[in-house]
Design brief:
8-stranded mixed sheet, Rossmann fold, 2 domains, alpha/beta, 16% strand
Length: 288
Amino acid sequence: MDPALALVRTALNTTSHLAPRLAGRAAYELFQRPLRRSAVRPAEREIHRQAAVERIAVNGKEVVVYRWGDGARPVLLMHGWRSRASRFAPYVPRLRALGLSPVAFDAPGHGDSGGRATTVLEYRAIAGQLQDGYGGFEAIVAHSLGVAGAFLALREGVRAGRLVALAGVSEFAYLPGAFCAGLGLGPVIERDLRHRIEHELFAGTEDPWRRFDAAHRPEEVSPPILVVHDEGDDVVGISHARRLKAAYGDRLELLVTRGLGHRRIVAEPTVIDNAIGFLSAGQEVSAA
């Protein structure tokens, strides 16, 4: 474990014995924030530079939006936690070759956007605003937390012809436990963290654990779905993909990879090939 994280673990676990609510508050503050922002990688810079940039706002936070093409036949790209829009750079020329316009954003607290943190509700709100500007999406391509945001958006008014979900979080209730396990935090802190998420972060939201669950009310998500997940993903386990398959049945195609983990899966050429093939099939159906 990173020495700084080990120090955090020791401090919070010790504090939890003396002042459990104080430790819970500290864990809650850490849970909400990505802590660091990802930079544009050298291999992404040229594609990133070519984007038309606009800015929208969600909950008073500036959100930077990137568009390639004229905006006709848009495809929405939704990145994950501690990531940014530029991670989808390898998809851009492939989508443009299909006559599609990729549209991506840096979520609040990520990339070049404002704010210090974001939630799946903000992902949904951003997707809705972009739909207002560009119309319904030909497809959505999402990674990790972006997958939870994509399913929520599709259940709550965003339209898309197809969905590609990469290494996605399907069970929202998994996140507090995974966060605490990653830092080695004890059950007292985890219980307090869950309470704060439910009653502070999502105050006024009825049962956020079910509402934000990607397998919840599958009949309300209509597009065909391709899920790609690595069997060795140690951030979001393969069980999340299998939950989605069980919920969506024949409407969902599951591709299991090996050796790509949670992050490499996004830009792996064979994964991109499969994603583009899946989206191309959708274009053929639309043209028929």
